[in-house]
TrEMBL record:
Origin species: Rhodovastum atsumiense
Protein name: Very short patch repair endonuclease
Family annotation (CDD domains): Vsr (cd00221)
GO molecular function, one term: hydrolase activity
Keyword Thylakoid attached: no
Cited NCBIfam families: vsr
Domain of life assignment: Bacteria
Signal peptide stretch: none
Record-linked InterPro entries: DNA_mismatch_endonuc_vsr, Restrct_endonuc-II-like
One Pfam short name: Vsr
Keywords: DNA damage, DNA repair, Endonuclease, Hydrolase, Nuclease
Region (Disordered): 1-34
One GO term of the biological process aspect: mismatch repair
Length: 161
């Protein structure tokens, strides 16, 4: 079996013309414990669900894992993961270096789809929460999560005794 192909890398552009304030802003973007993720975690915990975070043995290290329910909740930022909602204001492509950003964000979407497919093929159920959903109607989001996860409490998969 041949070794897996290395991920495609874009040539790194020259950032010498980027203002220092923009550099600080982009450096502050985190990959975990983001505000939307924390809000979803607090919501799930208040609803009575218990979960694990960032399981490294699963494809894409999902944000929230509920092993007893064989379910994953993935909280995605609208900008970096290209929210499919056409009304989302956070999913706008930057005008500066538009070609570079388009390629970078397209790779993110490809990776998200591949990770989701790998999780589903391994038997995991995946629920994607978008940043704009967290910011808008949390009550509706809580209901969607409850419908997806089932009643809180100890849950066992059907294959377990």
């Amino acid at each position: 079996m041949p070794p897996p192909a290395a991920p495609r890398q874009l040539p790194r552009p020259d950032f010498s013309d980027v203002p220092e304030a923009r550099r600080r802003n982009m450096a502050a973007v985190r990959g975990r414990d983001t505000k939307p993720e924390m809000a979803v975690r607090q919501m799930l915990h208040a609803m009575g669900y218990r979960f694990r975070l960032q399981r490294q043995d699963l494809p894409g290290r999902p944000d929230i894992v509920l092993p007893g329910r064989h379910a994953v909740v993935d909280v995605r930022g609208c900008f970096f993961h290209r929210c499919p909602n056409p009304g989302c204001k956070n999913s706008v492509l930057p005008k500066t270096r538009a070609d570079w950003w388009a390629a970078k964000l397209a790779r993110n979407v490809e990776r998200d789809l591949a990770n989701q497919a790998a999780l589903e093929s391994a038997g995991w159920r995946v629920f994607v929460v978008w940043e704009c959903q967290v910011r808008s109607d949390r009550g509706a989001l809580a209901q969607k999560l409850a419908d997806f996860l089932g009643p809180p409490g100890i849950a066992r998969r059907e294959s377990e005794p």
